[in-house]
Specification:
Layout lengths: L13 H10 L1 E6 L2 E6 L14 E7 L3 E10 L10 H6 L11 E4 L9 E2 L3 E9 L3 E2 L8 H10 L12
Parallel strand pairs: 1-5
Antiparallel strand pairs: 1-2, 2-3, 3-8, 4-7, 5-7, 6-7
């Protein structure tokens, strides 16, 4: 049986998709903490979930909106969401507030598949995106110097001076 293809993802100009993709960042959840989702893939034509690195910790606050997003598939067994597909589905009413989004990993299932060529998943949108700064990385010697200057004892007592 052939199912008619329903356009579930709004069609936006490439320039607008790239603008949104530059402003609205995907985040990844690990052990109840959000991190940058660093992907070098094309934000329009490739899945950002296939090749990525987990970056620095980020503060995204509480979700301001949660919805179901749709993602086209070439085959039902390949879930391949692009950043453009996500940012195209943000309602105009909250677009200026959204800084980050997160696809629910537990909900990224190839069984969430529609016969008209789409997968779907739950997506959270956040109004904050701030990289958590733990300060500069200091050498062992610099850490010891700062500790000593503050009147502390050796951080590395097993070392002889």
């Amino acid at each position: 049986m052939n199912f008619p293809k329903i356009e579930r993802i709004p069609k936006l100009p490439t320039e607008e998709l790239l603008r949104r993709a530059g402003l609205i960042k995907p985040v990844i959840l690990r052990d109840q903490t959000y991190f940058e989702w660093k992907s070098k893939s094309d934000p329009i034509n490739h899945s950002f979930t296939w090749e990525y690195e987990c970056g620095k910790q980020v503060n995204v606050g509480r979700p301001i909106f949660t919805t179901i997003t749709f993602h086209s598939w070439g085959h039902p067994s390949l879930f391949k969401p692009s950043i453009a597909e996500v940012v195209a589905q943000i309602p105009d009413q909250i677009l200026d507030q959204v800084k980050a989004f997160h696809l629910e990993e537990d909900d990224m299932d190839v069984y969430h598949c529609l016969p008209d060529g789409y997968h779907f998943t739950k997506t959270k949108f956040f109004g904050e995106y701030e990289v958590v700064n733990f300060g500069p990385r200091l050498s062992r010697e610099e850490k010891q110097r700062q500790w000593d200057a503050a009147g502390g004892t050796s951080l590395y007592p097993h070392q002889s001076e």
